[in-house]
Design brief:
The complex is a heterodimer of chains A (about 425) and B (about 325).
Chain A: E1 7-11, E2 14-17, E3 20-23, E4 26-29, E5 32-34, E6 42-45, E7 50-53, E8 55-60, H1 73-82, E9 85-90, H2 101-111, E10 117-120, H3 136-141, E11 146-148, H4 156-165, E12 171-174, E13 187-188, H5 191-196, E14 200-201, H6 203-220, E15 224-226, H7 232-243, E16 248-253, H8 254-258, H9 280-291, E17 297-299, H10 327-334, H11 339-354, E18 371-381, E19 400-410, E20 413-417, E21 420-421
Parallel strand pairs in A: 1-6, 2-7, 8-9, 9-10, 11-12, 12-15, 13-14, 15-16, 16-17
Antiparallel strand pairs in A: 1-4, 2-3, 4-5, 7-18, 18-19, 19-20, 20-21
Chain B: H1 12-30, E1 44-49, H2 55-66, E2 70-75, H3 87-96, E3 101-106, H4 111-116, E4 124-130, H5 136-151, E5 164-168, H6 175-186, E6 190-194, E7 210-212, H7 215-218, E8 224-227, H8 233-236, H9 243-250, H10 254-257, E9 265-267, H11 280-285, H12 291-310
Parallel strand pairs in B: 1-2, 1-3, 3-4, 5-6, 5-8, 6-7, 8-9
Helix pairs in contact in B: 1-12, 2-12, 5-6, 5-12
Classes of the chains: A alpha/beta (about 425), B alpha/beta (about 325).
C-alpha cells in the first residue's frame, strides 16, 4: 500500500465523531489529519455530507487463499473501500484454515494486496474442528488478536480452556449455535418454516449457547465476543450481562436488521443465512439492541458465493450475502438510527473491540487520516453490473438505497472518490 | 388464468372449485371405452422426478397420455444430475427440446417454485410433491374423492361444508398433509390433526386446524379419517419412542375402527405400510376405504390440471 505525499482539504461537511457533530473543514496531509491545509492541498467540496472515521468490518471473507473463484483480496478490499471501510478483519475459514503460524505468514503476505487495512483472525481449535486448542499464544505473539472457529464449539470445557489460555489482549469470538439443538435448520423455526415445509433452526439453539458463553466469560474474565447474534432473547441476555458488569461484546449482521423469516417465502436462496433470518420481533429487538448499544458492532458478514451456489434447492444452498458495498448505506439510511449510533456500530466500537488503533478515532489533528465521507440523503440504485465484489449472492441487486459512501480515505490517500475506487 | 400449480393457497376457493368441476368431465372420460381425448395433441409434458416416485409419476404419465400429449421422462438417477449438472441446466436442456410443461418432484421444499424463475413464459411448472411443502394434486384428488363420496360429482361449487376431517400421523414431514389441509378447509371442512407434538411443526398457529393427541376421542366425530405414512427413521431421530408405541396410540386398529361412525370414510395417499398406520385387515374389511378411488380420481384431477394449464383454446371432446 503506497503512502504518497498527498494533501486534501475537505470543505463544507459535517464532522461526526465521539465528541459530537460540528461543521468543520478537515485537512489531510502526509497520511495524517492536520490543523491547516497545506498550500498544495486538493480542495474537495463535501457540502451536505458527513465526514467520519473510516468504517471497520469485523466479519468478511475475501476468499484468498483457497476460494479465489468467489472473491480475491483485490476485489474484496476494493469492494470494502467502496463501502466506506478502511479496516476489515478477515475470517479464519480460509483454506487451509488459519490455525498455524505458516498459514498466518501466507495470509499476511496476501493481505499486502489490500487497499484497506486487513487483519487476520485465527481459529480457536486446530482445523476449527473443536477437538484441540490451536497455538493461541504463539499466534497472539505474532499479532493475531481475534480467535474464532466461525461456528460453534460444542465442547464447553475446551472453550473455557481457550478463554483461560489465550493471552490478554486476545478476543475469543464464538458464534452461538448449539450443534444438538439446531434442528439441521434451513431457516428459522416458526410459523414460516411450518408453512414452507422447511426444517427450522429454533431460537433456543442460539440462546442456550449465549447463556452458557456469558457464564464462561464471567468465570474466566476473558475478552469474549458473541459473533452474529440473531434473537430477541440473546439481546436481552446480553443486556443483563452488561448491566451485571460482565465484559462481553457482540455483533449482528446488517442483513439481520433488514430481513426476517418471511423473506424466505419464495424459496429464494438469497435469503438463506447463518444464523437464519428470524421473526419480526427478533429483528425489531436487534435494532433496539443496536440503538441502546447492547449490541456493540454491526458487520457486513461479507460471504461471497457464485451464482450457482445460490441456485441449489433452498435447503442445500450456501448461506450468506456479499453485501459489503451496501452495508453503510443500509445501516445509516434504512434502519432509523441516529448517525452517531450507526457510526459507533460501524466504526468506533469495532475498532476498539478488535484493536484497530488507527481507526475509529476522533477527527483531530495528529490522528491517522482513515476517513469516510457519506451522503445520507442521496438515493441510488445498486446495479449488479457495477458491483466490484465478485460475489453474486446479493439481495440488494437492483434495489434503491438511501445514503451512499462518496469518498474513502485510507492513510491519507483517496481510495474512493465520487463512489468509485480510484487506485 | 394460472400458469403454474405450486400449491393450493394461490388457487383460492374458486380456483380449486374450477379444477374439481373440470375433474367431473375427466372422470367421465376415464369411464369411456376409449378413455382418451385429443385435447393436448402436440403438447409435450416433461416429468422431472428428482426423488423416487412410482404412483405419482405413473399417474401424471397416464393423465398426459389420455390427453394425447407427448411425455418425456427425466429421472434423476439416470441423468447427468449424477455427474454434477445443476437443476437449472437440466431444466434449460428440456426447455430447449420444446416442452410445454414440467411436472416436478423433488426432495427439497421449494424447488418447483425455483424452477418457475428459470423457464420461459410458455412453460408451466406443476408441483408433483416438494419436500415437506406441498403436493397440490394429491390435495385436490383427496378433496374430490371425499366430495364425490358424500355429495356426488363436484359441479361448479364443490363444498365440504359440515364435514369433519381428521389427519393422523406424521404431519411435520408430510407435504400431503399440508395440501390436504388447504384443500379441505378451502371447501369448508373442519380439519383436526392428530399426532404427537414431535410429528407436528413447532408453530402452526396460522394453520386453520384443530389439534388433538387423542385419536380415540376424535374418531367418533369424524366423517373422514385421513391416514398418513409414518417412516421408521422418525424413531432414530427421536420423534417417536418406538413403532410399537406409535401403533398403540395412533394406528387404526380393529378396536379403533369400531369407534368410527357408520358413515365415515378412510383415505390413504399410499403407499400403505400395513401394520403401522393401519392394521392390514382393517384396510381389507372396512366398507368405506377410498384408497383405490383416490388413485382413479388422481388421474382425472391431473388431467384437469394439465388441461387447465396447457389447453387454452383446446376443445375438450
Amino acid at each position: 500500500m503506497p503512502n504518497r505525499l498527498v494533501s486534501y482539504f475537505f470543505k463544507g461537511g459535517e464532522v461526526v465523531d465521539q465528541n459530537g457533530r460540528r461543521y468543520e473543514n478537515v485537512a489531510v496531509s502526509n497520511g495524517m489529519i492536520v490543523k491547516e491545509p497545506s498550500d498544495d492541498a486538493t480542495e474537495i467540496d463535501i457540502n451536505g455530507c458527513v465526514i467520519s472515521a473510516g468504517l471497520v468490518d469485523l466479519s468478511v471473507n475475501f476468499g484468498e487463499p483457497g476460494s479465489e473463484d468467489v472473491e480475491c483480496i483485490d476485489s474484496g478490499s476494493r469492494a470494502a473501500a467502496r463501502g466506506g471501510f478502511t479496516a476489515v478483519l478477515n475470517s479464519s475459514d480460509i483454506f487451509p484454515v488459519l490455525d498455524s503460524a505458516p498459514v498466518l505468514a501466507e495470509a499476511e503476505r496476501l493481505f499486502t494486496k489490500s487497499v484497506c487495512e486487513m487483519r487476520p483472525s485465527a481459529t480457536i481449535t486446530v482445523g476449527a474442528k473443536g477437538l484441540a486448542l490451536a497455538p493461541l499464544r504463539e499466534l497472539s505473539a505474532k499479532g493475531v488478536r481475534w480467535f474464532s472457529d466461525r461456528g460453534t464449539i460444542e465442547n464447553k470445557n475446551l472453550l473455557r480452556k481457550a478463554m483461560e489460555y489465550s493471552l490478554s489482549g486476545s478476543v475469543i469470538s464464538v458464534r452461538p449455535q448449539s450443534g444438538s439443538l439446531n434442528g439441521n435448520g434451513a431457516m428459522h423455526e416458526g410459523k414460516w418454516s411450518a408453512i414452507l415445509g422447511l426444517p427450522g433452526e429454533p431460537s433456543i439453539s442460539e440462546t442456550s449457547e449465549v447463556a452458557a458463553i456469558i457464564d464462561l466469560a464471567h468465570v474466566t474474565g476473558a475478552r469474549v465476543h458473541l459473533d452474529r447474534i440473531s434473537t430477541a432473547e440473546s439481546v436481552q441476555l446480553l443486556r443483563e450481562a452488561k448491566r451485571n458488569g460482565i465484559e462481553i461484546t457482540s455483533s449482528v449482521t446488517i442483513q439481520h436488521l433488514m430481513f426476517t423469516d418471511s423473506d424466505c417465502v419464495a424459496y429464494d436462496p438469497m435469503y438463506r443465512a447463518d444464523p437464519p433470518y428470524r421473526s419480526d420481533e427478533d429483528r425489531e429487538a436487534l435494532i433496539v439492541g443496536v440503538k441502546d448499544r447492547t449490541i456493540d458492532v454491526v458487520v457486513s458478514d461479507h460471504r461471497p458465493a457464485t451464482a450457482e451456489a445460490k441456485e441449489l434447492p433452498f435447503d442445500q444452498s450456501v448461506k450468506g450475502v456479499a453485501g459489503i458495498e451496501a452495508t453503510a448505506a443500509l445501516l445509516m439510511g434504512s434502519c432509523g438510527l441516529d448517525l452517531e449510533v450507526a457510526l459507533d456500530a460501524l466504526s468506533w466500537s469495532p475498532a476498539k473491540v478488535a484493536g484497530f488503533v488507527n481507526h475509529g478515532n476522533l477527527i483531530l489533528p495528529g490522528n491517522v487520516a482513515n476517513l469516510t465521507v457519506f451522503n445520507p440523503r442521496i438515493s441510488w440504485k445498486y446495479e449488479s453490473r457495477e458491483q466490484i465484489s465478485l460475489g453474486r449472492n446479493n439481495p440488494y441487486f437492483e434495489k434503491m438505497l438511501t445514503g451512499r459512501v462518496i469518498h474513502t480515505i485510507y492513510r491519507g490517500e483517496l481510495v474512493v472518490t465520487d463512489s468509485e475506487v480510484v487506485i | 388464468m394460472i400458469r403454474h400449480l405450486l400449491e393450493l393457497e394461490e388457487l383460492g376457493v374458486e380456483g380449486i372449485q374450477a379444477i374439481l368441476q373440470l375433474t367431473d368431465r375427466f372422470v367421465e372420460v376415464g369411464e369411456r371405452a376409449i378413455p382418451k381425448v385429443p385435447a393436448l395433441r402436440g403438447k409435450t409434458v416433461a416429468n422431472m422426478f428428482f426423488e423416487d416416485s412410482t404412483r405419482t409419476r405413473l399417474s401424471f404419465d397416464v393423465a398426459a397420455k389420455r390427453l394425447s400429449a407427448d411425455v418425456l421422462t427425466f429421472s434423476a438417477s439416470s441423468s447427468s444430475l449424477n455427474k454434477g449438472e445443476s437443476i437449472r441446466d437440466s431444466v434449460e436442456t428440456l426447455e430447449a427440446m420444446g416442452i410445454n410443461a414440467i411436472v416436478v418432484r423433488h426432495g427439497s421444499s421449494g424447488v418447483p417454485q425455483q424452477i418457475t424463475r428459470w423457464v420461459n413464459e410458455g412453460i408451466s411448472v406443476i408441483n408433483a410433491g416438494d419436500g415437506w411443502h406441498a403436493h397440490p394434486t394429491q390435495g385436490l384428488l383427496d378433496a374430490y374423492t371425499v366430495c364425490e363420496h358424500f355429495r356426488g360429482p363436484a359441479g361448479p361449487a364443490a363444498s365440504l361444508q359440515g364435514l369433519h376431517v381428521g389427519l393422523v400421523g406424521d404431519i411435520l414431514h408430510s407435504r400431503v398433509a399440508r395440501s390436504d389441509i388447504q384443500a379441505y378447509t378451502a371447501l369448508g371442512a373442519t380439519v383436526t390433526l392428530i399426532a404427537p407434538a414431535t410429528l407436528l411443526p413447532a408453530d402452526i398457529s396460522t394453520w386453520p386446524v384443530r389439534v388433538s393427541q387423542d385419536l380415540d376421542q376424535v374418531l367418533p366425530t369424524l366423517d373422514v379419517l385421513g391416514l398418513l405414512r409414518v417412516q421408521k427413521e422418525r424413531m432414530v431421530e427421536g420423534s417417536i419412542g418406538s413403532i410399537r408405541e406409535y401403533i398403540e396410540e395412533f394406528s387404526l386398529t380393529q378396536r379403533r375402527v369400531k369407534l368410527l361412525s357408520d358413515t365415515a370414510v378412510i383415505t390413504h395417499p399410499g403407499p400403505v405400510v400395513r401394520g403401522v398406520e393401519v392394521t392390514g385387515s382393517v384396510l381389507d374389511e372396512y366398507p368405506r376405504v377410498l384408497k383405490n378411488r383416490q388413485v382413479s380420481n388422481g388421474v382425472a384431477v391431473r388431467m384437469a390440471v394439465l388441461f387447465l394449464l396447457l389447453g387454452s383454446g383446446a376443445e375438450l371432446a
